[in-house]
Amino acid sequence: MQQGFEESSAARTLKLESHDTHEVHCSRERSRAAWQIIDDYLMPFVEEEGYQISADCRLHPDNDLFRDQERHKIHLDVNEWRCGYCKKSFRAERFLDQHFDNRHYNLLNVNQSKCLADLCGALHCDFVINSNLLKAKCNPAAATRNRHLCESLANSCFPISQGPSARRLHELFLRQFCDAHTCSGKAKPFPRGGKKQTNLLYMATSILLMMLLPLFYLLYYLYQRDMKQETQVLRRVSQVGRKAKPS
């Protein structure tokens, strides 16, 4: 009963807000996918290098039209999302997205921020959103266009003139994102892995260590026991030998 009330309450809230709807010519879903890719497959390497991305780089968080709103999403439970601005609760993320569009449009930096979804071609958003596209026929013109966009991002975000870290990140960006823009089928996106792969490796290593640790202690215990028994046998033999000597 309470669930039904909350759903109807959320629906009424959205209806009341509908008259304030503003149209933004930028896909929030694709922008979110683009940022997730950046966060998973680029930022771990940027942080490892201790590199500061310039505000002129299109990949900088401040250049994401929806970044501030996304940071003000509070995910409390599977079916509970809360607006960080006004604390209203919603039962699905899409309702919260609509709430942002309707009530907090004024908080979008539409003058300076850019649409991160425009970079989806370079960042392989479709590969992440819909893996079935891998079976689709490759378009050479689109692949070339996306590769050019990808290389321009590498040049602007990680200029090789900025030092060793920038050069390494420039090379990584080309391998991680740009090389896959081809119809040869030889290269796949994100070959260097990222945050998810790192977490999985960490978990696998932790589980393996937890399994091996008891075995190590067992072997150590058996070794110590055998050494103790061997020492006792040697002592007995030594004592018998001393008693056998003639007086």
UniProtKB/TrEMBL annotation:
GO terms, molecular function: transcription cis-regulatory region binding
C2H2-type domain ranges (all copies): 83-104
Keyword Transmembrane helix: yes
Transmembrane segments annotated in the record for this chain: 200-223
InterPro entries linked: Znf_C2H2_type
Keyword field: Membrane, Transmembrane, Transmembrane helix
Domain of life of the native organism: Eukaryota
Name by which UniProt lists this protein: C2H2-type domain-containing protein
